[in-house]
Each structure stands twice: as C-alpha cells, then as structure tokens.
Amino acid sequence: MRRNMDLVRKILMRIEDSRSGWAEQPFGIEGFTREEVAYHAQIMMEDGLIEGVDVTTMHSRGREVLPRALTWKGHEFLDLARDQKRWNQAKAIVGKIGSAPISVWMKVLNDLVLKELGVAS
User: Fold this and answer.
1) Which of 21, 12, 56 lies closest to 35, judged by CA?
2) Which of 4, 16, 55, 63 is most exposed, with minimal Cβ within 10 Å?
C-alpha cells in the first residue's frame, strides 16, 4: 500500500476535531477503507505523529490500529498543513519528484509558512 499524505492529513484533522483530545471511535475517514486508515495510523504511530493502539489479532485481515491522540509532532505537522492553499502548494512542489519523506514535507510546508510571513528561509 502506498502512503497517502492526504489521508495522513485527514486523520490528523479528524483527531484534532475531537473536543476531548481523544479520537472518537469508531474511527474512519470517508472515502477510505478501514484497511487504508489502519495502515496509515500504524505508520503515523511509527513516526510519532499520533498515539494509537494496535488491536491486530490473528483473525485480522490486515493491521488494525485505533488512533487515539495527536502527539506534539502531529500538532506541528498539522499546524503547517492545515491551510488548504498551503497544502495544495506543498503537494504541487513535492509532486514534481513523485513522493518524499515526512521531513521533506515538513521543510516544504515550513518554507511556505515563512514565505507567507515574509521571513527568508
């Protein structure tokens, strides 16, 4: 399965929308399968964007991960990625090379924020 950065962003936004700070269950993202959301939640946990619980059993068809909360890093990424115009600009920049690690996404988004603020990067 390929990483989908739009889904990563949507997962972060969905968790952030919770009044309690905890992801509401059942957790899903419209337009994406349970498997896609679980896979992305797993890799987001691995990189420290979210906290979650792996509930995979031997009867599971794939990874089963329940997102729980944003981490500091998740908030940082979302602060950079929340604005739709900025997100679209970042996607266009990264799209020139196909895909990129999260560190490159953060750098591109950060540079766009600094440009908006009129601060040289």
Assistant:
1) 56
2) 55
